[in-house]
Structures are given as C-alpha cells and as structure tokens.
Amino acid sequence: MPNKTYNPYQSMLTVLEQAAKMLELHPNDYEAIKYPERELKVYIPVRMDNGSIQVFEGYRVQHSSDRGPCKGGIRYHQSVDMDEVKALAAWMSLKCAVVNIPYGGAKGGINVNPSTLSCGELERLTRRYTAMILPIIGPDKDIPAPDVNTNAQVMGWIMDTYSMINGYTIPGVVTGKPLEVGGSYGRPEATGRGVSFITQKALETFGFPEGPVNIAIQGMGNVGGIAAKLLQEQGHKIVAVSDISGGYYKAEGLNIPAMLKHIRSSKNRSLAGYAELGSTKLDGMDVLTCDCDVLIPCALENQITTENAGSIRAKLIVEGANGPTAADADSILEEKGIVVVPDILANAGGVIVSYFEWAQNIQRLMWEEAEINEMLRNIILRAFDEVFAIASEKRTTMRMGAYISALGRLSKAKKIRGVFP
Ligand code: NAD
User: Fold this and answer.
1) Which bin fits 217, alpha (ψ -120 to 50), beta or left (φ > 0)?
2) Of these residues, 71, 95, 107, 201, which one is catalytic?
3) pLDDT per residue over 234-257, tens digit each?
4) What separation in Å is there between the alpha carbon of 195 and the centre of ligand 1?
5) Per residue in 136-185, pLDDT tens?
6) Which of 35, 255, 406, 418 has an alpha carbon 20 to 30 Å from 225's alpha carbon atom?
7) Distance between CA atoms of residues 60 and 82, nearest Å
8) Which residue, judged by its Cα, is nearest atom 34 of ligand 1?
9) Whole-number Cα distances in Å, 54 to 43, 51, 157
10) 118 C-alpha to center of ligand 1: Å?
C-alpha cells in the first residue's frame, strides 16, 4: 500500500530541485518558482437532505500566473488537503509550460467522498464552493476544469453560479463543460486521447517492435477509460485494468467496450460486479506489477513507490495520472531501464483542449472535432519531441527533460516580468 507519510508537495519539490540544478537555474529564479502565488482555504457549509448543516474544507491554490491566467482542475476526494492541492497546482504550471500553452497553473479541491452525497447535496456543495472561491476565479484570472470525481455537470453548476452572481452568462470561467453550455468537441476524450498519442509515439521512439503491445491500465475513469478504448481501437491489447473496486487480467485482452458499458450503467460508476469469461481477478495494486509491456497509471498520486517499483514488469510507463510515481521510486525504474513518460507531458491533452474550449468561449466561436483532435496531436507530439531532444542531449530521463523544458519557459517568463514592485 502507498506510504502514509508521502507528501505530494515535497515529492514535487524534490524533482523540481533536481531539474533546477541540471538547468543551472540561479537560486533566485528557483526560489521564485517553488512557492505558489496564492492559497485559499474555505469552510463550505452545506444544508444536507436531512436538514442538518455539514461543513466541508475546500481549497484553491494558484501556483503561477507568469505565463497567463491560472488553469487547473477541481478534485472531490476524501484525501484532498492543502499539500496535495499545492503539488497539483505546481504540476499544472509545469504542464502548461511543457506544452507551451499560454496559461499558468492552479488546482482546487474539496475534502469529501462524493459517493456519500445525494445529487442535490453535491450541487449545493459545488455552488457554495464556487461562491466562496469566486473572488479569485474568472476567464482572465483562473479557469477551473474537471479532475478526480468531478465531471461536466459539476462544471455546468460552477459556470451557472459564477454567471448568476455576475448577472450574465460567462462560459469561459470553466472548461470541461457540457457542449450545450459552451463545452468543446473533443474535451471529454482529450486527456485519454493525448495519452494514446503519447503512448504510440513513445513505442516508436524507444524502439519497441512494430505491432500490438500488451497494456495494463490503473483507473478506468475519464482518463483511463478513454485511453483504454482508443489504444484498443489502435490494435493494442489491454490485458489488465483496475479501478477502486479491484482489477481484471486476461492475456488475450479484455473487452474494453463491455467494461465501459458496465461502469456507465453501475450505481457507483465502477467495475464492481463485472464478469468476463477467461479473465482473472486482480487484487488492489497488482495491476501495476502484472505481466505487460506498457503500464498506464490513471488513478491517483503515489501508486508506484519504492515498495513496488522493483517488481514492475512493463518496459514503458505512461503517466496518465498526476504524480503516480513517488520521487524516490524514479531511480529504481531508471536502473531497471524502464522508460517513464512523465505526467506533465503524458496527460497534458486535457489542458490543451481546455485551452481550445476557453479560446472558443472568449471569441464566441465553435470549432470542429477533427480540427481540435489534429491541433491536440500537433501540440502534444511537438512537446514530446522537445522533451526527448533535451533528455537525449543531457543524457537524462524524460521526466527531467520535461521539467527542464518547463522550468526554462517558466523562469524566462518570470525574468521578463521581473519582481514587482
Ligand atoms: P476519475 O474520477 O474520472 O477516475 C478515477 C479512476 O481511478 C476511477 O476509475 C477510480 O475508480 C480509480 N481509482 C481511484 N482510486 C484507485 C485505486 N486506489 N486503485 C485503482 N483505481 C483507483 O478521474 P480522472 O479525471 O480520470 O483522473 C485520473 C487521474 O488523471 C488523476 O490523477 C487526475 O489528476 C489526472 N488527470 C485528469 C485529467 C482530466 O482531464 N480528467 C487531466 C489530467 C490529469
């Protein structure tokens, strides 16, 4: 099981510091980047269905606005705390920089297990949280999006609350909205699609034999589910998947459309109760160490640790989730010769298409899906090439290459703007 003393913010700083040293960043420049610009903690009172009032803790952290408005998702989970949100906000600044879109980084979250709330309670929680972070968000300031356990409907409530308080409709305040209220074609699939582009590119770049490979995926939500579907459509075999309820393995490849159908129709949107002929059940974290060529973690942080990194059999890891590998596990993977395509590059498809959604909203435009998918492919694969070139030149990992690319852009923007006053 993941180490309970793990601190995502410290883990992020460990990697950031290594990259800053490799980039020979001046200590002043590193000092300015390592802290978030702003942290907001709110106590959100919600009237529950039984008439009682329950107070939830919520957060919004803005790490950097140096390269543009802050951008980052909102997570509803019982493990959310300030350090997790701070780490996620910094990763957003790095992610937007590595793919070179004009955004800074932010993240928000509420400490709640949303599966315990009714739909009405979830809506009231979302609307009150929006009202409480309202002074610091907006299309020119900070634009939230979906993350773990939030979806297009939650974004619709945020957009409506923000618009009602301001007195007119402002779709550009959030991305990942339903199409009917200013969402973008391609946004629901964007992160998984980006993961599938990056996986294919990494297979070609790192000399895997042409043809289908065996893939294991942890997490079957927005990111993992779509990545599984698209990679299977490309001809690969998805031999193992897991979600919060457990996992399945089948050497001949699992039936991903049937799994996704089961998840969509189940009460908790999970794999619980799924049955497939020829598949065997996997316990907890076994999906990470099963027999496969490619491992794609798409659940939460701190899944690949010093405890299980030595047992991983995949030769390529593509990080669909944010922070799935603890900083101290990276060297074990490197020693074993496992290539890791890091989160800030591999899962950037979501923020790239969020950028397209926001650009359409503020210009009152609508673009075609084919055009959006093509622009996504160009941006994410160009970033892959840049990171690969840096990693090759400096004889380092793809993670260091991505951090060096991002830190270089961030620190240049900071230098140009200077320190106010
Ligand atoms: P989601 O809520 O749609 O899905 C999360 C999935 O992880 C679910 O299938 C859940 O059952 C599973 N899960 C949770 N705990 C697990 C555990 N202990 N073991 C196995 N499975 C577990 O969330 P999502 O939007 O798909 O996000 C997943 C990850 O991707 C997060 O790290 C998120 O920050 C990152 N991410 C999401 C987006 C996006 O656009 N949604 C973009 C970039 C990065």
Assistant:
1) beta
2) 107
3) 999 999 999 999 999 999 999 999
4) 13
5) 999 999 999 999 999 999 999 999 999 999 999 999 999 999 999 999 99
6) 406
7) 9
8) 322
9) 10, 10, 20
10) 21
